[in-house]
Amino acid sequence: LLCPCLIYGAYVFLPFDAPLLPTVSARLVYTLRCATFATFPVVLGMIISGISRLCSSALEPFGELQREVEIHRTYVSQSIQLFILYFFNMAVLATYLPQELLKLIPLLTGLFAISRLIFWLSYAISRSFRVFGFSMTFLPLLAMLVWNLYGMFVLEPENLLS
């Protein structure tokens, strides 16, 4: 329930609009540029993971990982997987959205980045709290997937592969 409220509140109250993007290629470039900001939590996780691996008291580099190192490594691998799914769904979403709704692309990107950081923090505190951050990432992804499938098969079935 929080994700739709956050997106709606940001859509209504943040004072910016998407630029005029009449072609599919312009929309894809816009999505690609927005997605660059979503890589920030992933890159930050890679840096912290490397530092925690270097500072680890493990004498064997290929031995069993400590909990602190394992948290960051798991976060990075899950974030990369979710980012790939998120990016492809956002790219397809950008081709189906009308011009006045293209403001959702940077908002969804910001939600992804914030959600991953919340997941990381809650995962480090306790593994039982991580469901909140994960659901804030996964449920918008699921909603985008449903909308994309609806757009492909119901709204424009004649342009399915073109």
From TrEMBL:
One GO CC term on file: lysosomal membrane
GO biological process, one term: regulated exocytosis
Keyword entries, A-Z: Membrane, Transmembrane, Transmembrane helix
Transmembrane segments annotated in the record for this chain: 37-59, 79-97, 104-125, 131-155
Species in which this protein is naturally found: Neopipo cinnamomea
Magnesium in keyword set: no
Keyword Transmembrane: yes
PANTHER family: TRANSMEMBRANE PROTEIN 79 (PTHR31004:SF1)
Domain of life (superkingdom): Eukaryota
Chain's gene name: Tmem79
Name by which UniProt lists this protein: TMM79 protein
InterPro entries (alphabetical): MAPEG-like_dom_sf
